[in-house]
Amino acid sequence: MGGLAPEAKAHHASDPTFCAAQAAGWKFPRSLDERPGREPVQTRFTPDWSNELMMQKESADVVVIGGGVRGLVTAYYLSKAGVDVAVLEKRFVGAGATGLNTGYANVSEKGPRHYTEFSKMSADMYPALNEELGGGIEYERNGSLRIVETQAEWEAQAATVAERNQVPGLSMQMLEIDELRRLEPALASDLRGGSFCPIDGSVNPLKFVRALAQRAAQNGARIHIGCEVADIHVTAGRIEEVVTRQGRLATHVVVNAAGIHVPRIAAMVGLDVPVNAERGQLTITEALPRFMRRPIGPYTQFANGQVLIGVTNENVGENTGVTTAMIASRVRQALRILPVLKQATGIRCTAALRPMPPDRLPIYQKMDAVRDFYVTVGHSGITLAPVTGKVLADLITTGHTDIPLDPYRVERFKPQGATAH
């Protein structure tokens, strides 16, 4: 078991969506296949590095549960360190929130200060990670904008900018609309203005997660899709095996990176990890000529010209339905801020569920009550991907990390004096 620390060794949219699109003044094809000359959109792939069924091998040094960005970046960093790692994903790579988001690698929206610093540390690691992956993930670091429409919004955002700039290196600015339009000419001219953060960046989340999976597999990791975890067997506080619908995998080390399902996986070993499912509804357009140079609030344009219009923050449980009111509201706001979108045709409205701890900060922890059971969960998985991989690889292979994690322990949700279980 070389490489481990000594102690670790041993749809498319439903009908209400079309009503929302029509309410916003858009054409919206009922079926993607109705578009002449268009190939059907592929929502699932089975690449040659994945395994639909268990088990090529019956053991692994480390089992990572979850095939989103947190799970796969952990697998990549571990495999790079020579660890024998298996990833178990019950659906397909990027099936959850990872595959349905703007792809921000942003620091500007992260507070309080310790979280700003943590996010900046991760963002600063992206150029090297992009190079390791061979590029091709549409990584750019040319900043982001946050638009404000009223004087009250201006004052609130100015206060946020002042707070963020307490962290050296952010260099955020409040800019009048004329200054913003020099950065992004497509912005409406009657907006109040907004903030600019030059160190924010972005990736294509689907290409990013696929690159992580491919490189991890090249390093020897096994990625099992369509493989749901049913139980984890523990004896005397030590993990013995992970039980799936397809078979059993012997291991003493488990990383719980299962997104909204983190609580269910934690409960299998008798632990309580609080995570809520928060719905984010979004709209995707057909390709337009490139008009955005960087993310603008909840809007981003990918290299293929498609625009993603996000996103809502709704505590509705595990409900991925889309709603007319929310979609129409977000689309109308987008048309107001970026009038060029009036030319667009929406092709998809959908929703993802973000894993959100109660205080909206991530959880990173080697749990105390069960030996070698690790948890990584929270929103902003894209922003935090590089630091997530480093933290988990450090903890598993050396037993410690130099990156401060105290603010992200699960004990913060417990009554004072209680322990994490």
Overall geometry comes to: globular
The CATH topology of one domain is given as D-Amino Acid Oxidase, Chain A, domain 2
- Give the ordered list of helices and strands: HEEHEEHEHEHEEHEEEEEHEEEHEEEH
CATH architecture of one domain: 2-Layer Sandwich
N- to C-terminal distance: 28 Å
Largest sheet: 7 strands, mixed
Find the count of extended strands (DSSP E, 2+ residues). Answer: 19
Question: CATH class of one domain, anyone?
Answer: Alpha Beta
Strand residue content: 15-25%
> What oligomeric assembly is this protein in?
single chain
Summarize the model shown.
It contains nine helices and 19 strands.
Describe this structure in words.
The structure is a single chain. The chain is α/β, with parallel strands linked by helices and 421 residues long. The protein has a domain at 104-202 and 277-356: D-Amino Acid Oxidase, Chain A, domain 2 (2-Layer Sandwich), CATH 3.30.9. The protein is 26% helix and 21% strand. The chain has helices spanning 15-23, 69-80, 113-132, 151-164, 177-183, 205-218, 262-267, 324-337, 385-398, and strands at residues 50-51, 62-65, 85-89, 104-105, 144-148, 173-176, 193-197, 201-202, 222-225, 229-235, 238-244, 248-250, 254-256, 276-285, 299-301, 307-309, 346-356, 363-366, 373-377. A seven-stranded mixed β-sheet has the order 1-9-3-2-13-19-18. The chain has a four-stranded antiparallel β-sheet with strand order 15-16-14-17. A three-stranded antiparallel β-sheet has the order 5-7-6. α2 links the parallel β2 (62-65) and β3. α1 (15-23) packs parallel to α8 and α2 (69-80) crosses α9 (385-398). The protein starts with 14 loop residues before the first helix and ends in a 23-residue tail after the last helix.
